[in-house]
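Project outcomes to date are best conveyed with an example. Our students and postdoctoral researchers have been running inverse folding experiments weekly, and each run begins with a structure described purely in tokens. The record below, which covers 394 residues, was selected by the lab manager from last quarter's runs and is presented without edits.
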């Protein structure tokens, strides 16, 4: 009998290089180091890149005429030479650090519990087909991958599979023409939605404080800052409409400890370590969402930004696992993605004119894969697309 296959999310291993030049990437406002910034250049058809570590340090081991420095939370820069420190300008409002103490105003918990109580009808009761654009960019030290997809997103409403999509335009930019389509980050942005995951446990497991300098207070909005009571790598902010008890936008950062705890089943992770040597070394995640409002007052995730860095080890030599990995594409340690969703329109194609819908299952990091589950992943890795070589793109 064919054994069940334990499959794991894959990330490229880091490489070492000679003649490295050290540079620090830092926030131009807070002066704090910026981790997982991408520094890359394309010279003579060859792509080279470096990624800053937890201290903001990057080792640039390649020559360049123009170096691009980017991070989802900062404005990109292009450099002709390498300074000792690269100062990145934040893309979002930076306020003074808000001290989160054990003394928490009672109204915060009351308002957030009301969000939880009413979120199903306010955010997730509507079944729509919405126009969308998804873009993901990934890189390692020697290659870059981009995938642009425009189409329509449909909400299904089933617990295990809440979304499906139709593809209108699909473009892959990479150096390898055999590269596949990648909607893994799209699935993460949809299913790891902040409001969907907000519950009473999350509220009680974090300390909360109000940012007194938030500019939207005259409209009945407040910005709340939160930090985990149990782990140091879980923090963020959200904007709350106190009159309607709805969340308008949110940002959350989680690190390795929190991500392992929340995203990976402990039993399967232990089994993966035992059977394949799979180990998550580093795992950081930035998630930012803005919610839009429909004409009937319900809300939906209108704009999402997502950044993930995942460094793993995997020594599995199982031919079945290797074949599956080849059919679904590889992976990159440093990934960034955006999702823009528009309002519902009436001109949605029907019948024979309608393009096929592809069901989007929940994202995973370690799981047992059934034959049907493996086939779903293969299908989503082979969506209709146009290929453009990165030698012809910036």
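After processing, the design step wrote out the following sequence:
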């Amino acid at each position: 009998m064919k054994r069940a296959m334990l499959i794991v999310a894959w990330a490229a291993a880091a490489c070492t290089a000679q003649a490295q030049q050290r540079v620090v990437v830092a926030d131009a406002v807070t002066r704090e180091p910026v981790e997982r910034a991408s520094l890359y250049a394309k010279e003579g058809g060859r792509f080279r890149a470096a990624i800053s570590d937890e201290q903001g340090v990057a080792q640039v081991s390649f020559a360049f005429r123009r170096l691009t420095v980017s991070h989802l939370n900062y404005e990109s820069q292009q450099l002709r030479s390498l300074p000792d420190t690269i100062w990145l300008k934040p893309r979002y409002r930076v306020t003074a650090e808000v001290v989160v103490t054990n003394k928490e105003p009672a109204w915060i918990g009351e308002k957030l519990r009301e969000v939880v109580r009413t979120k199903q009808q306010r955010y997730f009761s509507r079944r729509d087909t919405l126009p969308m654009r998804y873009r993901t960019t990934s890189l390692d030290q020697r290659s870059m991958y981009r995938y642009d997809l425009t189409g329509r997103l449909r909400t299904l409403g089933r617990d295990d599979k809440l979304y499906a999509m139709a593809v209108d335009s699909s473009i892959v930019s990479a150096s390898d023409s055999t590269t596949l389509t990648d909607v893994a980050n799209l699935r993460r942005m949809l299913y790891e939605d902040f409001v969907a995951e907000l519950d009473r446990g999350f509220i009680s497991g974090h300390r909360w404080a109000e940012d007194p300098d938030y500019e939207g207070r005259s409209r009945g909005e407040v910005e709340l800052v939160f930090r985990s009571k149990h782990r140091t790598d879980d923090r963020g902010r959200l904007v709350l409409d106190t009159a309607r008890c709805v969340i308008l936008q949110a940002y959350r950062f989680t690190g390795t400890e929190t991500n392992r705890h929340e995203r990976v089943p402990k039993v399967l992770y232990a089994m993966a370590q035992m059977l394949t040597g799979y180990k998550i070394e580093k795992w950081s995640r930035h998630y930012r969402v803005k919610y839009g409002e429909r004409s009937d007052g319900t809300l939906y995730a209108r704009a999402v930004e997502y950044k993930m860095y995942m460094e793993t080890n995997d020594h599995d030599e199982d031919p079945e696992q290797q074949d599956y990995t080849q059919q679904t594409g590889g992976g990159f340690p440093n990934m960034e993605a955006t999702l823009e969703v528009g309002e519902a329109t009436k001109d949605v194609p029907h019948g024979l004119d309608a393009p096929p819908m592809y069901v989007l299952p929940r994202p995973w990091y370690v799981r047992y894969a059934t034959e049907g589950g493996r086939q779903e992943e293969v299908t989503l890795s082979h969506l209709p697309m146009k290929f453009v070589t990165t030698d012809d793109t910036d």
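Residues 10-19 have pLDDT under 50 and may be disordered. The two ends are 50 Å apart (CA to CA). The training component of this project remains on track.
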